[in-house]
Amino acid sequence: MAHDQMNPAIEKILSNIEKVMIGKRNVAELSLVALLADGHVLLEDVPGVGKTMMVRALAKSVHASFRRIQFTPDLLPSDVTGVSIYNPKEMEFQFRPGPLMGNIILADEINRTSPKTQSALLEAMEEASVTIDGVTHRLEKPFFVMATQNPIEYEGTYPLPEAQLDRFLLKMRMGYPDMTEEIEVLNRAQKVQPIEELESVIDLAELQFLQKEINNVFVDSTIKHYIVDLVHSTRGYSSVYLGASPRGSIALMKAAQAYAFMYGRDYVIPDDIQYLAPFVLSHRIILKSEAKFEGITAEDVVKRVVARVAIPVKRLEVK
Amino acid sequence: MIKRDFPTFILYTFGFLLIWEWIRPLEQLTTTQNINIFILFLLTCFLLSFFQVRWNWQFFIKATYILFFLNSFFYKDHFYKLKWLNSLMKDLKGNLWNLVDRKWDYLTDSFRTLLFFILLWLMVYLIQYWLIKRRRIFIFFLMTVVYISILDTFTPYSAKIAIIRTVTCGFAAMGLLTFYRIIEKEKVKYDSSFIRKWMIPLVAFIVLSATVGFAAPKAAPMWPDPTPYFQANGHKGNSSGSGTGEGKIGKIGYDEDDSRLGGPFTGDKTVVFRVIATRKNYWKVETKDVYTGKGWIESGAGTEQLEPYALIPVFGIPDSVAKTHELATIFPKIKRNYLIYPAGIQRMIPNSNEVLELDTNKEKITSFNVDHEPEQVNSYEADYEVPKYKLTDLQKTTNATEIGQDFLTRYTRLSKSLPSRIKKLTEEITAGKTNWYDKAKAVESYLNGPDFTYDQKKVAVPGENEDYVGQFLFKTKRGYCDNFSSSMAVMLRTIGIPTRWVKGFNSGDFIKNTGGDPSRQIYEITNNHAHSWVEVYFPNQGWVPFEPTKGFTNTVDISYFTNNSTTSKSQETPPVPVKKPQKPEQDDPSTHVTKKLNDNKKSNQSVQIFFKKHWYYMAYLVILLSVIILFLYHKRGRWVPYYILLRYRFTRDDKFLERAYLVLLKQLERYGIKRKKHQTLRQYSDYIDTFFSTREMTRFTSYYEQYLYNRKMGNENWSEARKLWENLIKRTIA
User: Fold this and answer.
1) Predicted pLDDT of residue A251
2) Which residues of chain B are within 8 Å of residue A307 when distances are taken between CB atoms?
3) Does B662 touch chain A if contact means CB atoms closer than 8 Å?
4) Residues of CATH 3.10.620.30 domain(s) within chain B?
5) What's the distance, CA B634 to chain centroid?
6) Could you tell me which residue, B337 or B207, shows the higher pLDDT?
7) Is CATH 3.40.50.300 correct for A8-204?
8) What is the pLDDT of residues A278-287, one digit of tens each?
9) B251-559 CATH
10) Mean pLDDT (whole number) for B424-433
11) Chain B within 8 Å of A11 (Cβ-Cβ)?
12) For a 10 Å CB count at each end of chain B, is N or C smaller?
């Protein structure tokens, strides 16, 4: 977005992350969008491209506690949320919080675990609280989950149901670094891992303030129209079995607000929507099986829809 | 809620124009004068209403207006002296009593004027109510159209243009009102673009329908013109007022008052006479000898009862002229008590007991019953002579020496104010002609020449100081028989040739041969055949008819054998009217016949003829216009930007930016760099800037984004935005 000046706080965070991450600025940006919009991210990628590094750098930058859960088929919900254990000394059950009780959680290979555990996590994400033995424990604020899933290992995986995919604000890929970037990665690998030395640039209170600011970003009715137009178009699209839900519209708007805020604007423009639409909408669309056989992906569909819906260039008359 | 916006103003304008159509004919058809005062009053009423002046002020202004003009028209005292108000009150009181007594004729002009003002006042209120409250005008519009068409049909008022004005105004008003009705019914908020969307097709449709309506061929009237019928029933065949006031001049069929000629002629197909005769004849009713400058009157009066079977004492055909005897039977078809007769009449024999009387001055024959009350003759026989002139004899006359002085004076008299150039013209025309006959023929053929047009509708009435003949000869050159015949008669008189003006009917329509006698034919003479012509007096030859009217012929038998001059004997001065006892005849107010045709038909035909004649010009024009439009469209990239620049130069509207931006997009599209509809403004402006290697589009777009997506636009940026925009527009010209 060449026209806009980055919000200084955001710029600080991003450049901080860039100290440890080479390239992948867009992924960092999108993660921040999700963090600011109070949403969660699903990263679909092969192992070893720096997902963990990304999240840790992000957590460090905002001075948040970072937890990592490695999902395995035998992981139980209580392993995630925590468990009450009888303390014989005190003669009562004591709650031992699970790894979910942090600010920024990396849920690695989420599709490897059983649906039971998956749903425990996703419920926590949605409600921002967990209930164990009848006691509701509020999760810390901010609460940000970055889940990853491995796209090629279909053996022994439990694909996330559509309803649960909907809970993620964004779904994205990391992708491999290009040649020069990868060489730079090698160069860095020879030195001390810099992640340990990474300083935080803002604290949690500041982050929460930024999150509140997002809501003040103005969304004109023309833009709302445009969002709804886009989402509607996914519903009628020929190769789509089930289009994006109204939750998708909300997500798109929220993400766009965050994105506009990052770029120092207090209003959303169609460019924000166009940029974010594939990340926000593609995992909310269920394709027909014919389309899948033809090799059409949900991202393709969203891109085509974006290329089809007209941009508003006139004010809507308020009636 | 009544608003004071532009569309409302337009509505008021249409209302005003419609009501104006009601007043326009008044000046022509009635004695109403100072029509502008009433129009101004209407205008005032509409303006007051439009600006929503408080009712008491409105009342005050209107009342003052009315009183002021009442005062200046009808009262001597100064307006501010207020003394005149007393007389006004008195007048009002008297008139109100007259109203109660239904003595309509006694109402004074001032009271009528007052009533008219009040009527207009009410009409304005009504129209305002229809336009603004009810949002309906159809009834009024329809009434206006009906009013105008009735006037057009039954009066000399020509609504050719009026009907176009009315229809255009009415349609436009109705179109606008429909728009408002829909808006109000659906409770939609609308902006100006909405109106434009409505107005453009509306205007297009109106223009189209008006043009088509004007250009399309129109059928002739399906029924005969009913006016004369009304007339005949209305007042006993007397002076044709045609329901209008005294100021108007115009003729309908046969008319007896010729003191003021001019104005349009309205004929009709009412059959006046049916004639059984052996040949075609012009039918005389009367002749007139005094030209006043405005028309013709008779120099005196004298009646003589005609003895049955006696010769009728009118100027006959001298014995020196060869002639044949003919007999005709005439059946009057409508109630007229004058009798028509052919030139050379000898005897008239009514088939019933009526008494015939002759006006010796006008040579008009009328019929009475035994109690001397005007009575129509059922049918009568006319015994007459048909002359056979010899050209050489006619050409013998070169001066008036053989004519008695009194006679010469009577038939060469001219009006005092006759323009001298008539004489000059006549002398020019007759230059080189030595004898009277050649001179008369020269004048006749001059009037038959290409300079003059036969027309019954667009015929002028001479002004106060204008001569009827002078106006026709030098100014209008357009008229019907009265114009032509009067002109010839007057012109010949200026060079000393005695003439008289003859009124009657031309030979009429041949219907069929009679069953029994193949030599006798039936002719039908209608009001359309009313006619006037000229008789020129030649010593020894008598009164010889001439036909100066374009398109008419009066067959006068003239033999061109030169060696055969019959009469050498110079006749006595005035040919003495031969008096012979005949059946009694009566004198009766004679009517004069003027010939006029059906007018409406004529104007329709002229439109058709115009289109027939000029269709290729029109086709050419249409093609030319299309080519120009196509060219302009093709080259629109060249001139549209200038137009746009000019158009938005002075706009300070908040919406300027939006309009300007959209216009710019359109202009860029014309230039060939079209925005794809999914392309965001930033992507597009990047593209444009790369194209032109500037940053202007991006900068301008950022203002527009502020306006569009943020609903904010700093005032301080106006001038900068405008400059960027102008630069961009200019770039598209290059």
Assistant:
1) 92
2) 678
3) yes
4) 251-559
5) 46
6) B207
7) yes
8) 999 988 888 8
9) 3.10.620.30
10) 86
11) no
12) N
